[in-house]
């Protein structure tokens, strides 16, 4: 324990200087802006500023880049809550109840709870980072087979997102799975559903699709509605009440655990963890019917998961030298530019850097909370803009965001097509959340399944050779059985009510 | 309201500060060292590669050739480098570093944009269709660019569609095994591949990728077989080896040096004709008795139709940067070897690799 304290002291000593603090603040600020801009993700922002690593001292450059990444996790929420446009992939789940809260005049509260939830999750996750070497030693034992088991389990979560009609929910889920299949098959190199278009070889751009089916379809739906919505009076209080905090703390803690765990799984997409946190909240809630209509836990859980994942993503990098995302690969480059080698020896050879980074992430949480809470009122004031002008700005904003993804009009076209498809499906009452989940989970499931089989020489029986995977299969059975039992009970109840109503009528 | 304004002003100030720093913190230009005469094409001479016409001419720092002047004028001092890969990868980092030095050399603003997709071919297509003024340059990687030779490929370009400029970045692939592995030499590995035919697992980026081609070349030359485990990118390969789900893989030195330094992996042999300066104690596979070459070359090209004098001037400029000791030192930090190839030498190397690629791909 005393060793940990002295290491942390070393870390804080190296970052609590005016110079490093300034770079941390700049990084957090730039990260928030990056998160707000859809399409312009943290990888692009850190890549742009990587040359700083050649001229800045090691701690300053690494702290700045890490803060950009982490800041973007905070910033991505803003447009999800206010405009139903996810700033980055991990904010998709926040759209569901975050935007519903905005419609109910609770935009300020939604942004505040996401800032507070992110802060709490971040602080807890940083504590976990202290034990990164021990956690990484466990994380590296996860095989493709284990990832397959957990992906399959995560896929069953889709049941919690289906809404009133299971059939419509499944239509949405299958649409997402299909979208996730577009692109080159990495195992054979052959194109799948690419229609001969080079642009589709890497698959459909996730952010453009998500902006389309959530943000654009929402706008089209509103325009097509009888009365234009007016949010100008719907800003509400930005201050959280003690009751709000009490309602959310459980969601925040559960979200933290889920996000932290997903961050350790190799190849796990950030959006999957926030969806997992969302569906878990809906499942444990005593009032699941409030979800999708502005439940504060539906914002607190995914946001906590998102930020915990942001921190735990550092564990494979710091302890093993494995970059789990493009942004982490840039951070790895920043380390190597400075003659540092992330991995087991970093904590021995350069403890001031390793512990400095951990301390800087703790510091970033405080900086971002201080930055985020006062800015809530400023962000929320966007809603004062007349609806039609706001829609025009949002459309331009989304189109620019889609263009930034690959610097071509193709993603803009995808955005619009996704918007129209989303709008049409909404008209038939098909929920969009299952599709968003399966778009990210589908490829993860397929890759882990096929690679697990390759590792085991194609033997199907090997799929049951891992205790972790078997536990996941068992949980799937429990989840599905619970759902079936509750559905049967519900239908029996309805039948009883109908028959008693009929009996009363005949009397 | 007043507080909101203050916050807005502070945000603008921070952004402005960062942008101004970006503009001013470029490294100072270093003087170029031009090395001795060349004998054969492709031969290394100090830090420069020989061309058919002999020693490369490189202008002095103070004298800017007319072709460069007119180039910069046409481009309004705004150049663009299109990368066919995403941010954060080795290509992206190599290009951003090179862009910094092009800025220093020309005084122009160089924007690096990522157009990832289709194994780099979307970026290549974008550059191919750009104006014939060389204001847009693009990266082309060998052997990844050879994907057009695959029967299932829908890629439309060939070598002739590209106006090659020069290569600066180079990284050989190295066979690595887990630190706990029973293999200490590549011979141990090959012997085990013989003894346990098809049971030794190699992490790969997919069929037709540079590592898979090298494995098949090795297997063919040693009469062995193996199981290919396809992973999603180099980080996934590293994770697969650390978790011992694969027995070995071939990765660029740039990508695995950190793991070797950390003693997580052992390097068995380098797929190159000469020893790597980053792994001085690791033999080449050729030295170990297995003549397999597998490398990565990062080059720049532009669209066809650009004035030859202009293309040549850009090539000269890149070779000058490649001779810059500061540039080399910066690349060293990233474990990227600066091994320049002129356009002619690059073209020859392309042809050589294409022949090998076709011969292996036809047997897959």
UniProtKB/TrEMBL annotation, chain A:
Residues 22-435 form the DUF112 domain. Pfam families: TctA (PF01970). Keywords: Membrane, Transmembrane, Transmembrane helix. The chain crosses the membrane at residues 20-41, 48-71, 111-131, 137-158, 170-188, 203-220, 317-341, 353-376, 388-418, 471-488. The keyword Nucleotidyltransferase does not apply. PANTHER family: TRICARBOXYLIC TRANSPORT PROTEIN (PTHR35342:SF5). This is Unannotated protein. It comes from freshwater metagenome.
UniProtKB/TrEMBL annotation, chain B:
InterPro entries: BUG, Bug_dom1. It comes from freshwater metagenome. It holds the Pfam family TctC. This is Unannotated protein. Gene3D superfamilies: Bordetella uptake gene, domain 1 (3.40.190.150), Periplasmic binding protein-like II (3.40.190.10).
């Amino acid at each position: 324990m005393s060793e940990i304290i002295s290491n942390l002291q070393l870390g804080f000593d190296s970052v609590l200087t005016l110079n490093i603090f300034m770079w941390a603040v700049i990084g957090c600020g730039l990260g928030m802006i990056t998160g707000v801009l859809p399409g312009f993700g943290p990888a692009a922002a850190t890549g742009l500023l990587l040359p700083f690593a050649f001229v800045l001292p090691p701690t300053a450059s690494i702290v700045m880049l890490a803060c950009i990444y982490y800041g973007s996790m905070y910033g991505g929420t803003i447009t999800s809550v206010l405009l139903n446009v996810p700033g980055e992939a991990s904010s998709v789940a926040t759209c569901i109840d975050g935007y519903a809260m905005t419609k109910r005049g609770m935009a300020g509260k939604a942004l505040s709870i996401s800032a507070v939830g992110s802060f709490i999750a971040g602080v807890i996750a940083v504590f976990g980072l202290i034990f990164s070497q021990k956690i990484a030693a466990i994380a590296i034992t996860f095989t493709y087979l284990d990832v397959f088991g957990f992906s399959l389990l995560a896929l069953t979560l889709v049941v919690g997102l289906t809404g009133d009609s299971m059939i419509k929910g499944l239509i949405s889920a299958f649409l997402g799975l299909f979208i996730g299949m577009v692109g080159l098959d990495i195992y054979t190199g052959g194109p799948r559903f690419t229609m001969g278009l080079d642009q589709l070889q890497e698959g459909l751009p996730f952010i453009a699709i998500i902006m389309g089916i959530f943000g654009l379809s929402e706008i089209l739906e509103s325009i097509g509605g009888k009365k234009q919505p007016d949010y100008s009076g719907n800003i509400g209080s930005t201050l959280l009440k003690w009751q709000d905090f009490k309602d959310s703390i459980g969601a925040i803690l559960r979200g933290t655990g889920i996000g932290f765990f997903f961050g350790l799984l190799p190849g796990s997409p950030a959006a999957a963890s926030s969806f997992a946190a969302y569906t878990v909240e809906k499942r444990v809630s005593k009032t699941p019917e409030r979800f999708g209509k502005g439940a504060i836990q539906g914002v607190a859980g995914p946001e906590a998961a998102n930020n915990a994942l942001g921190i735990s993503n550092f564990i494979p990098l710091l302890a093993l030298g494995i970059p789990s995302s493009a942004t982490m690969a840039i951070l790895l480059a920043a380390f190597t530019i400075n003659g540092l080698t992330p991995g087991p020896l970093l904590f021995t050879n350069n403890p001031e850097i390793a512990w400095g980074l951990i301390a800087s992430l703790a510091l970033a949480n405080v900086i971002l909370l201080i930055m985020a809470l006062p800015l809530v009122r400023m962000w929320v004031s966007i809603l004062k803009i007349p609806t039609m002008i706001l829609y025009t700005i949002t459309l331009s904003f989304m189109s620019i965001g889609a263009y930034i993804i690959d610097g071509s009009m193709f993603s803009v076209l995808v955005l619009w097509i996704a918007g129209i498809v989303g709008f049409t499906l909404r008209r038939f009452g098909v929920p969009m959340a299952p599709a968003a989940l399966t778009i990210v989970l589908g490829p993860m499931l397929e890759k882990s399944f096929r690679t697990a089989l390759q590792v085991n020489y194609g033997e199907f029986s090997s799929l049951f050779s891992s205790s972790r995977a078997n536990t996941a299969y068992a949980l799937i059975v429990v989840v599905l059985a619970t759902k079936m039992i509750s559905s049967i009970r519900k239908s029996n109840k309805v039948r009883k009510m109908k028959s008693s109503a009929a009996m009363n009528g005949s009397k | 309201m007043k507080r909101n304004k203050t916050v807005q002003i502070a945000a603008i100030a921070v952004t402005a500060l960062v942008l101004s720093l970006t503009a001013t913190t470029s490294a100072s230009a270093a003087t170029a060292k031009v090395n001795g005469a060349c004998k054969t094409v492709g031969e290394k001479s100090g830090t420069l590669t020989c061309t058919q016409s002999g020693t490369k001419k490189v202008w002095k720092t103070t004298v800017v050739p007319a072709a460069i002047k007119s180039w910069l004028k046409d481009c309004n001092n705004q150049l663009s480098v299109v990368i066919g890969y995403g941010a954060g990868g080795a290509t992206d980092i190599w290009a951003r570093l090179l862009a910094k030095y092009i800025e220093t050399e020309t005084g122009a603003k160089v924007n690096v944009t990522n157009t990832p997709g289709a194994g780099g071919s979307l970026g290549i297509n974008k550059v191919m269709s750009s104006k014939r003024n060389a204001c847009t340059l693009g990266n082309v990687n060998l052997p990844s660019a050879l994907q057009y030779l695959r029967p299932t490929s829908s890629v439309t370009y060939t070598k002739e569609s590209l106006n090659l400029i020069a290569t600066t970045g180079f990284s050989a692939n190295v066979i690595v095994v887990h630190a706990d592995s029973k293999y200490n030499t590549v011979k141990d590995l090959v012997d085990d591949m013989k003894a346990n035919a098809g049971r030794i697992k190699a992490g790969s980026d997919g069929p037709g990728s540079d590592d898979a081609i090298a494995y098949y070349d090795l297997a063919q030359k040693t009469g062995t077989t193996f199981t290919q485990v396809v992973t999603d990118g180099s980080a996934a390969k590293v994770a697969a080896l650390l978790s011992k789900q694969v027995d070995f893989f071939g990765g660029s030195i740039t990508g695995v040096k950190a793991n070797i330094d950390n003693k997580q992996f052992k390097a068995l042999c380098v797929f190159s004709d000469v020893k790597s300066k980053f792994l001085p104690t690791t033999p080449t596979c050729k030295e170990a008795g297995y003549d397999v070459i597998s490398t990565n070359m990062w080059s720049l090209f532009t669209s066809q139709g650009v004035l030859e004098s202009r293309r040549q001037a850009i090539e000269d400029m890149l070779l000058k940067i490649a001779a810059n000791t500061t540039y080399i030192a910066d690349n060293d930090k990233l474990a990227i070897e600066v091994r320049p190839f002129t356009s002619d030498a690059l073209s020859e190397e392309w042809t050589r690799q294409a022949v090998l690629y076709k011969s292996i791909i036809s047997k897959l």
